[in-house]
Design a protein that fits this description.
By secondary structure, this protein is an alpha+beta fold. It has one domain. Helix content is about 30%, strand content about 35%. The chain contains two helices and four strands; from the N terminus they run ββααββ. The protein has a four-stranded antiparallel sheet with strand order 2-1-4-3. The model has no long low-confidence stretch (mean pLDDT about 95).
């Protein structure tokens, strides 16, 4: 099962977190990542972040990425959103 952990961090503390599970292996890994991120944003009531080149690079290397204010069009009230694949 594909599982992605997401957490909102503010002042070095987890404010909210969730784990998204996808069992449809007909989807590509990229599709599962985007589908998970969409669900995360829905659960956290956030606009979808923009994937900057640095975010993509970090995610490709570590299967983990941080989205800061630079990744969002609207102001955010936390330091960053971090996503991480915890199972594939």
């Amino acid at each position: 099962m594909f599982r992605m952990w997401a957490k909102l961090i503010n002042n070095t503390r987890i404010v909210k977190d969730t784990v998204i599970c996808i069992s449809d292996y007909s989807l590509s890994r990229t599709s599962m990542v985007f589908q998970s991120l969409e669900e995360i944003c829905y659960q956290f009531d956030l606009g979808k972040p923009i994937w900057l080149d640095s975010t993509v690079k970090e995610f490709k290397i570590h299967s983990k990425a941080r989205f800061t204010q630079d990744n969002f069009m609207e102001p955010i009230d936390f330091d960053f959103l971090e996503i991480q694949i915890i199972e594939e």
